[in-house]
Design brief:
- This protein has 3 helices and no strands.
- It is mostly helical.
- The longest helix is centred in the first third of the chain and has 92 residues, at 2-93.
- It is elongated, with a radius of gyration of 52 Å.
- The N and C termini lie far apart (140 Å).
Length: 149
């Protein structure tokens, strides 16, 4: 019986040792997986904090831009009204320009094909004579004569 008890006790001891090793190995694995999960969580938290800081900075910059933008728009509105007033004053100070003269229509009998050679040459001269006269160049008041320059 001694040998059977000895054999049984060694089996129990081996099984217990194997189970203890597996539990300790399992606990090591569990510990490692918990550490990995904690590291991932720490990275995510750090990333979230960085993003929140960036978002705050961006919001502050946008607020500053809005404040600056409002001041600039007021300036641009004032500048626009000044420009418009200057353009209106300039347009009203200029002398009105007369529209170009319209060409007179050619009578129907002159447009018809002439039969004789003399009539052909006379008909050829009529359209050239009836062209609209060229408008005169507008006078510029601020120009100085070339002799004074």
């Amino acid at each position: 019986m001694k040998s059977a008890t000895k054999k049984l006790s060694t089996e129990i001891a081996e099984t217990l040792a194997g189970k203890i090793e597996s539990v300790s190995a399992g606990s090591k694995k569990i510990k490692k997986s918990i550490e990995k999960a904690a590291a991932k969580l720490a990275k995510k938290v750090a990333k979230f904090q960085k993003e929140s800081v960036k978002k705050k900075e961006k919001d502050e910059k946008q607020a500053l831009k809005k404040l600056k933008g409002k001041k600039e728009t007021k300036k641009t509105k004032e500048e626009k009204t000044k420009k418009i007033a200057a353009l209106v004053a300039e347009a009203t100070s200029k002398a009105p320009v007369s529209p170009p003269a319209k060409p007179k229509p050619i009578p129907a009998r002159a447009a018809a094909a002439p039969k004789t050679a003399a009539a052909r040459t006379a008909a050829a001269k009529i359209p050239a004579a009836r062209q609209a006269p060229k408008p005169a160049a507008p006078k510029v008041e601020n120009e100085a004569p070339a002799s004074e320059a």
